[in-house]
Structures are given as C-alpha cells and as structure tokens.
Design a protein that fits this description.
The chain has one domain: 3-Layer(aba) Sandwich (Aminopeptidase). It has seven helices and eight strands, in the order αββαααβββαβαββα. It has an eight-stranded mixed β-sheet with strand order 1-2-3-4-5-6-8-7, sandwiched between helices. Helix 2 packs across helix 4 and helix 5 packs across helix 6. The chain is globular, with a radius of gyration of 16 Å. The relative contact order is 0.14. The structure holds coenzyme A. The site of coenzyme A (COA) has 20 residues, from strand 5, helix 5 and helix 6. Coenzyme A binds next to strand 5, helix 5 and helix 6.
Length: about 200
C-alpha cells in the first residue's frame, strides 16, 4: 500500500477550502498569532480542551508547533492552521495515523468569533478527502465530549456514524467527561459520494 507522506516534502501544500479560507501546515512563524488567538479564547476553549493551562507563553505555542513538525516528519499526520483571509482562525489536525490499521482521528478548534461559519465542517471534509482518496486510509474517527453540542454536530453533519460511548475518557481540569465516538469508513465515504457528497448539503 502506498502511504502518503505528510512530511516536509509533501505536507507543505496549502489546502484551499473556499474563497478566502485555506489550511496551511503549522509553521514556527505562526507562533505569535496562534498564541494570541489561544490567549484571547482561553475561556471558550477551556470548556472542552484539556491543554489551556499548559499554554501560558508564546514559547509554549512554539513547543506545540515543534511537536507538530516532528509529527509530520515521521509521517504521523499533520496539524493545519485554519486561515480566513490570511488570519489564523483555529487549528485542525490528526492526532496520529495508524498506518497498520489505516486509521486516523481528527481534532479541531476555532476562536469563538469564527464559529457558525461552517469552517470546521469544510476543513474536515477536505481532510477526509485526503485521508480516504489520497492516503487510502480506511477509517477516520472523531471523539467529542457528550456535552459538546457544537463539536458533535460536525461529524453528524458530515455523515459519520455514532458508534458508541467511552466513559470518563478525558480529564478536564476538575472532572471527567464521557466521549461519544463517531466513525467514518472509506466505504461510507464512497457511498456518500466522496467530497461532493459527505454532508455537503451543510
Ligand atoms: C467545536 C467547534 C470547532 C465547532 O465550531 P462550529 O463553528 O460550530 O463548526 P463549523 O465551523 O463546522 O460551523 C458550523 C456552524 O456554521 C453554520 N454554517 C454556516 N455555513 C455553513 C456551511 N456552509 N456548512 C456547514 N455549516 C455552516 C452551521 O449552521 C453551524 O452553526 P450552528 O451550530 O449555529 O447551526 C467550536 O465550537 C470550538 O472550537 N469549540 C471549542 C473547542 C472544541 O470543543 N473542540 C472540539 C473538541 S472535540
């Protein structure tokens, strides 16, 4: 099976999503802007993401970007900045890629002001096309906290199947949350018509 390299040679491509919206592979030059977005959205993000207290200075964001670069260099998936008219609106990426089982999972966030525009749904659709059509993966998973209505709406909108629940899957500062597991298989993707079909009615 040919594996698609997400590493420097191949990952450096920008993915156009729609007019003014694109995904760019994270780069150390993004650190200041990404930290500023994170810092301005601390309360919004902290409701559902566990890492906010570990990001206090721009150096912490740089460390995250370096980790993302190492991830891409070992062909284990990529982290992209979601850009709107050039400005960073959020992040979408793979947690890792399990090449043996042809499986990956996606994570995402956007600043509060960038919600409600379909950015993440569209970005996921592009990464699904890449996963199923280019990388020939068989399964993509998205896990969301049960109470995270907006996050759960993303895989639902894209036609993922709700497959089950993992109890107390994640520690969020002072409490556990249960996760709902959403899965899409390559066969689901093809049946839905690929990038033109999967949830593209919005
Ligand atoms: C989860 C999160 C990324 C979802 O953001 P979102 O804006 O709801 O998702 P999308 O970008 O796909 O946009 C969907 C919204 O845009 C609207 N929309 C507008 N045009 C659209 C289009 N062309 N296609 C799809 N949706 C569109 C949808 O109706 C929906 O809004 P609604 O919920 O008010 O109905 C965001 O809430 C977030 O960052 N939360 C904090 C971090 C987090 O929870 N991350 C996920 C952890 S699992």
């Amino acid at each position: 099976m040919a594996t698609v390299q997400y590493n420097r040679a191949r990952r450096m491509q920008t993915i156009a999503i729609s007019a003014g919206v694109r995904l760019t592979p994270l780069d150390l030059e993004d650190a200041a802007d990404l930290f500023a977005l994170t810092d301005a959205n601390r309360a919004h993000l902290r409701a559902w993401l566990p890492w906010l207290d570990g990001v206090r200075r721009v150096e912490d964001t740089r460390a995250f970007i370096r980790t993302a670069e190492r991830q891409a260099a070992r062909n284990d998936g990529a982290q992209f900045a979601v850009r709107v008219d050039g400005a960073i609106a959020g992040i979408i990426g793979h947690h890792r890629i399990d090449w043996r089982n042809r499986h990956t999972s996606l994570g995402y966030w956007v600043g509060e002001a960038y919600q409600g525009r379909g950015l993440v749904t569209a970005a996921c659709r592009s990464l699904l096309a890449h996963a199923f059509d280019a990388a020939r993966l068989n399964r993509v998973e998205i896990r969301c906290a049960v109470g995270n209505r907006r996050s759960r709406a993303v895989p639902r909108r894209l036609g993922f199947r709700e497959e089950g629940m993992v109890r107390e899957a994640e520690w969020l500062y002072d409490h556990f949350v249960d996760h709902v597991v959403y899965g899409m298989l390559a066969s689901d993707w093809r049946r839905a018509g690929g990038v033109r079909g999967a949830g593209s009615s919005g």
